[in-house]
Amino acid sequence: MRSGADLPTTSWAVLGMLSHAQELSGYDLKKWADWSLQFFYWSPSFSQIYAELKRLEKHGYVTSRTVLNEDGIRGKRMYAITAEGREAVSHWVNHSPVEAPVLKHSVMLRAWLGHLAEPDRLRSILTEHIDNAETLRRRAEADAEGSHANPDWAFPTAVLRWCVRHYEAEREFAKDLLADLDNLQKQSRKTQGRTKSRSSKSTRTTKP
């Protein structure tokens, strides 16, 4: 099997979505990405999707045609994966290196810089993150349940269940960090208390 073009992962994601259907429009791809891919990889804009489709068509992995409305006025553009495109994305799935995921977590970064944060504000940031994780967990769970009846979506459904467990864990990790912050604050108050006590004793012993 040929290795195909050296494309970014987002191209393979779009090409992979096209492998699930005979034809899809850019709107369809956006809807499918929001239904599934956004939970673990990518929430694309329409401009990003069309840029990837243009790239894939240039490599011969995708064909497109314009579907006219009933009145003959130009309608939407439909895209289909070619045999070469299916072969290339299959090669990527089966033979590309297994890369360790790179975690870019802005909430975690802000907690890492907690010495610069106001304690109450840091707690509210983590609390909001917990709420967001729970919202995403529920949405992923609902999408997984909604696609369960369609055998063509067996693998995406299994990945959505993985996403459910991921957001459950993310929620619990953030709760653990909140508990750690409480312990840090308690330790800080104890340290400050001991420091004040030593300072007070030192003041009394040095009086004439």
From TrEMBL:
It comes from Nocardia albiluteola. Residues 14-89 form the Transcription regulator PadR N-terminal domain. Residues 184-208 are annotated as: Disordered. Pfam families: PadR. Gene3D superfamilies: Winged helix-like DNA-binding domain superfamily/Winged helix DNA-binding domain (1.10.10.10). This is PadR family transcriptional regulator. Residues 187-208 have a biased composition (Basic residues).
